[in-house]
Backbone:
């Protein structure tokens, strides 16, 4: 039963990537881009861990790279916990050896925002 569940999860992830490389509700809706970034990174991490879907991973990373500026955009709606969860997923992606399309200045800003959230 557990293996069947894992297989259905894997199939869902591999079959539900959007044309722009994202996963999520509606990546073209301007208020849902952070949700799409979070969902996309979660799916990329799963594929990388499962060692499947190399092209899907790359398309997901391309989506993240082309929408990375939204992370700092305070006019965007943030899913609950985004400023804590997203940096954690980025760290996990680095641990998995993913070549993230994010420069060091971006990563520094993101970790700065994480520290601010934790201090609250």
Residues:
């Amino acid at each position: 039963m557990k293996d069947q569940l894992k297989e259905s999860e894997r199939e869902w992830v591999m079959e539900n990537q959007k044309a722009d490389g994202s996963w999520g509700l509606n990546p073209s809706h301007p208020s849902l881009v952070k949700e799409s970034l979070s969902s996309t990174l979660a799916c990329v991490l799963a594929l990388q861990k499962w060692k499947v879907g190399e092209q899907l991973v790359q398309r997901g990373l391309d989506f993240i790279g082309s929408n990375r500026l939204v992370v700092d955009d305070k006019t965007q709606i943030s899913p609950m916990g985004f400023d804590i969860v997203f940096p954690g997923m980025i760290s996990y992606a680095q641990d998995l050896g993913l070549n993230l399309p994010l420069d060091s200045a971006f990563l520094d800003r993101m970790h700065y925002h994480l520290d601010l959230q934790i201090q609250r």
Notes: The mean pLDDT is 88.
